Amino acid sequence: MANRHTIILMQTSHNRATRTFMDYESISQAMDGICALYERKLKELNPAMRNITYDIEDLYNFIDGLADLSALVYDHSIQAYLPNDRQWIRQRMLNHLRKLAH
């Protein structure tokens, strides 16, 4: 499960030109990548703040505020990518952050 190539498909607004993708070597790295995107957004919105904190609800609001977000995760057993929706990403994010906290 740890080394499952993951592609995050994202559209930040209703403008189709904002569609993009990011690929990662694992689900965990993909969750870190989404957190990093949110942290960059927070820094853009609050350039004077040195330390910015947020909680899982703030991160969920960011995820839910995107026009589209999904993940394609490689399944070695069928040698194909399986699609996962925003709710799946939210659950994986919570599990990922819980692991980092312990």
Verbal overview:
The protein has 102 residues and is of the alpha+beta class. Helices cover 44% and strands 25% of the residues. It contains three helices and four strands. α1 crosses α3.
Layout of strands and helices, then pairs:
Elements: E1 6-11, E2 19-24, H1 27-45, H2 56-65, E3 68-75, E4 80-84, H3 86-101
Antiparallel strand pairs: 1-2, 1-3, 3-4
Record keyword descriptors for this entry.
four-stranded antiparallel β-sheet, 44% helix, alpha+beta
Percent of residues in helices:
40-55%
Number of helices: 3
Work out the radius of gyration: 14 Å
**Major beta sheet, strand line-up:** 2-1-3-4
Query: Which blocks of ≥5 consecutive residues have pLDDT under 50?
Result: none
The amount of beta strand, in percent, is 15-25%
The succession of helices and strands, N to C, reads EEHHEEH
Shape: globular
Termini Cα gap: 19 Å
Number of strands: 4
* Major pleated sheet: 4 strands, antiparallel
Q: What is the SS-derived class?
A: alpha+beta
Mean pLDDT: 94
Task: Provide a compact summary of the structure.
This protein has 102 residues and is of the alpha+beta class. It is built from 3 helices and 4 strands; from the N terminus they run E-E-H-H-E-E-H.
